[in-house]
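User: I'm writing a tutorial on reading structure tokens. Could you give me a worked example: one chain, its sequence, then its tokens, then a sentence or two explaining what the tokens reveal?
Assistant: Sure. Here is the example chain.
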Amino acid sequence: MLADRRIGQIVDRITSLRPSLVALDGNLSASTLSTLLTHCASLEIPTVFEPTSLPKSKRVLDYLGSAEGAAVDVVTPNLLELRGIHAAADERGLFESAAWWKTVDSLGLGEDWRSAVERWARRSGAGEWVINEGGQ
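And here are its predicted structure tokens:
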């Protein structure tokens, strides 16, 4: 993969340009993704992860609330990818983990956010799954 071979140049470019946001996608290797997320975190640059597919979407769980410094700030899955992320989190037992809920709590999402998600779910057709299962 081109990004793997040019990782040094990409890191240098991020350092010199100091963008306000870096967007990454699921086509990057785990090594490249980790390097870029860690580097962005060290520069306090927010990151966005676009999963690109159901199998690749689950990789984001390795970077949510990561203690190693490689963390994703925003994830942009479609409904299928969101269901896959939810299922993978459930399979990993994350919903029973205190560390998971500490990460969720750190987002500072209150009742206004929950209400907005519920309104969106009803309008978009995502409906009951997002409201009931996605909100566990």
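What the tokens reveal: DSSP finds eight helices and three strands in the chain. The chain has two domains: 2-96, 98-136.
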